[in-house]
Amino acid sequence: SRGVRGKGQAARPELLVAPRAILDEGEVRRAEAGEVVGPAGEPLQLRIGAADSAVTVDSALVELEATYRPQAWQVERSYAKGSFSARRVAMHPKVSDAQFFRQARTRATRVRLDARDIAVSGMASGSTLMGQTVARHFEIGRLELDAAVDKRYAPASKRGRTVMPPQGFAAMPWGFHLDTLVLKDGEVRYTEIQASGEPSRIRFTRLAARMTRVANWDPTGPIQVAARGHMYDAGAIEANFTIPVHPEKFSMEVHGT
Asked: What's the CA gap between 125 and 80, in Å, rounded?
């Protein structure tokens, strides 16, 4: 293998000789690899169809040695069409909020994520073999994001510089290149639990956004984001973001009302 390096990016492996396997049709009735089972413990249903080289998973729940439990429903990857779809993908903590923050022992952010009607098109064939995900269009029909911070716990001691999300995205070992990402409808809730008094809350609803040039290798320019929504279903907000993707420095321009 050899390294693939975009401007200002870390080298990523490129597979020069791709392994090839041919399977006309198959079905896995139950799979236990890292304890992968259905959402209620039922068998994982996996079908491989010969018609369009599609892999379909009816439902899956992944049990890992981690704080969160990812789940997915009606997932299909068609290699002939270069597409991916999922009716729903969710990631929730395994424990209650009280247990989550108590186990963290320092200030931490609890996240609940629920995305529905996911559709990806224009996926480059064989890109995953080279450690990359390349696609033209990524659409999410509905997204719910709930984050909470318990400020009664002291923050962890800082070691080194703070890494912002665009810097972390730039430094990912997996290459990612997406022409357009569209969110049709979303809701974001954020809560801060204080040492005294009621928790502070903020909620954004009816969110819609369009992102272009989402790439962390060989980027053609900064990520452009156009978003609109409402605060507490009342005040309308609209903003445009320009976000350069660089592993060493962070900057962002925001314009809006």
From this structure: 9
CB–CB of 225/241 below 8 Å? yes
Average pLDDT, the chain: 79
Closest CA to 89 of 62, 129, 122: 62
Residues linked to residue 111 through DSSP beta bridges, in sequence order: 147
The answer, yes or no, to whether residue 42 has pLDDT greater than 80, is: no
Angle at 68 between CA 172 and CA 140, to 5 degrees: 65
Strand duo 175-193 + 200-215: pairing: antiparallel
Please give the structure tokens belonging to residue 128: 């995953």
Cβ neighbours around 40 below 10 Å, total = 7
Find the mean pLDDT for residues 17-25. Answer: 46
pTM of the full predicted structure? Answer: 0.74
Integer CA distances (angstroms), 18 to 128, 129, 157, in order: 10, 7, 44
pLDDT at 6 > cutoff 60: no
Written as one letter, the residue type at 117 is D
